[in-house]
């Protein structure tokens, strides 16, 4: 029911009469106010230059709204993650327990990778059925999937995944009609258009996952595939791994192949090697991303329609069930 | 569910009601709000409203519809409502 709000404008976000107001001065000096129904806000994405004060943060915390900030280039800066209201010491102990025991940790990490690879394969199969030459990549992903069970450590698992992903990115040359061949994934900063799109899409997905984790009792800093307790809310990274090919990659294929985003939508800034999305393209991406998250599929077990966004939360719930020993975790495998 | 709330309230209380509804719904035009609500939220809205109004003098109509997709809405003239979630 609640919505994500994306603010590209510059202005001030304030608490007024117990709801949210976005205020902006228009050219003729008039203050333009947009009221936002607070009860209808899941999270806020700030892309513009926005003033806010602690009074607002207090209010957001009361209403359990997470706030994600992005810088001028559209890079993820950080989140305001309000005080947790859904806490469970019991679950925290269980989370740590599964991290400390290498065997238990591996079991969970393996599921994350298995889900991710399954969706890589699914994407490749989709394009193979449409006559693209992706067999080489497909074989690598297939063999990685088979070898997963033999992996004895998380490091091995990571390298197996890395291999599959490299092959997968090679297939981008077949899937996308590119002028320059796509060589490899480069981050910080992304060095070409495709990398730039992947980076932007992944950071959106990462924040969406974090917002879903906020609703659950899980502690977002304890993760299993990525090394926890450093820098970021790494459990969100773990979970978004499963959804990247399912959501972000497919969106990128669609946008580029339909020409909705093309070379003219990117720019490099100054001397730096980075390639960035222009603001117009960023808005377009955010709009289709949000639409995509809201599309629904019929859930076989729940027997109702659930959105992609909700699937992320269900994934968190499944993980909880695993941690408290109700049901073994099996990551999402898209069935539709 | 999709909810449309229409009210006729005496001037001394009308601002309070308008402010209150802004927390939940989008303002469509004078004395009209609409938007998506959950069952629980609707209960909350109703109890909040009943504290603000004077049942002897004011009146609030609440129309419930199963979902936004089932509403066919047409606007003649000015559209005042801002329901966008992407502000650009």
Notes on the structure:
Chain A: Homodimer, forms a heterotetramer with a Cas2 homodimer. Chain A: It comes from Brockia lithotrophica. Chain A: One of its GO terms (biological process) is maintenance of CRISPR repeat elements. Chain A: Mn(2+) binds at residues 161, 226, 241. The complex is a heterodimer of chains A (336) and B (88). Helices cover 48% and strands 17% of the residues of chain A. Chain A is α/β, with parallel strands linked by helices and 336 residues long. Chain A has helices at residues 54-62, 89-100, 102-128, 135-147, 154-170, 172-175, 193-215, 234-257, 279-294, 308-323; strands at residues 3-7, 11-16, 19-25, 31-36, 41-46, 50-51, 66-70, 76-80, 266-268, 275-277, 296-299, 304-307. Chain A has a four-stranded mixed beta sheet, with helices on both faces. Chain A has a four-stranded mixed beta sheet with strand order 4-3-2-6. Chain A has two domains: 3-80, Ribosomal Protein L15, Chain: K, domain 2; 89-324, CRISPR-associated endonuclease Cas1, C-terminal domain (Four Helix Bundle (Hemerythrin (Met), subunit A), Up-down Bundle). Chain B is an alpha+beta fold. Chain B has one domain (2-67): Alpha-Beta Plaits, CATH 3.30.70. In chain B, 30% of the residues lie in helices and 28% in strands. Chain B has a four-stranded antiparallel beta sheet with strand order 2-3-1-4, with helices on one face. In chain B, strand 2 (26-29) and strand 3 (32-36) form a beta hairpin. The longest helix of chain B has 14 residues, at 39-52. The mean pLDDT of chain B is 88. Chains A and B meet through strand 1 and helix 9 of A and strand 5 of B. Strand 1 of chain A pairs parallel with strand 5 (86-87) of chain B.
